[in-house]
Predict the 3D structure of the following.
Amino acid sequence: GEEEIRKAKEDIIYVSISGFGEKGPWAHKPVYDPIVQAISGLTTIQGGSDEARPRLVRTIVPDKLTGITTAQAVTSALLHKERTGEGQHVRVSMLDAVIAFLWASDFGGQTFVGREVSTQRAATFIDLIYETKTDYISVSAMTNTQWHALAGAVGHPEWADDERFSTPAQRDLNANERLGLTQEALLNRSAEQWLTLLDDAGVPCAPVLKRREVIEHPQVVASDLLIELEHPEAGTIRQTRPAARFSKSTPVLRNGAPALGADTDAILAEINIPEDIINKLKDNGTIA
């Protein structure tokens, strides 16, 4: 435990990650990513409104977000240690990480004390995925300029003078009508045609890519995000470089994931376990 470890190194940064924290009626419960999606409100947000069927995000958002939150917390603790010489215990729960992440964008109805909203409607100011003659695209016209440009590009300049869509607030209030009209108009051409027309008009838009298409997209290629490594067992593998780019240092992926037990000898040697003890541990099956 922490007490024993701190005897060996008093200023260590000690990290604990849990599902629900160290106290409260759920502190003892086992947890997986979907459980946290459910209890954090994320599934309701993904469903579109409190009245719609809740939906899981089809990737492990709480798992990954908790890791990122923990990494940021450790960095902060290391800075505190650099300034004060003090180590500390950093505690992160998956539930805390997800609710904190969602709060500013998705819990507006619960922000103002005494004026909470009992039922949240769909966040329809975020434009949907649209169907075209060929594929799906995303179109997001938020400002008045963009909305007017969209109206002109799809052949409905009268939308710019429609009182229902005259301001961002009105477009949000009449989102169902706005999105329905936009979808109807976009069915008349192919995705490629619309992307060209909308881009030329200054309307934010993008193709909806399948995973196999993402790795070939010109923007992904231009960013040098994907790299290839030789793995001793798996062969050539494709990975992403670290997303952040640094002006003074370059993070390097030295190798792929190690095989089970590949680093055991090196780690035990690093903590001064004699070679004969390591061999005995191998012989009796304690380590691989």
Notes: Residues 258-288 form one domain. The beta strands are 14-18, 89-93, 129-131, 136-139, 205-207, 226-231, 235-240. Residues 61-84 form the longest helix (24 residues).
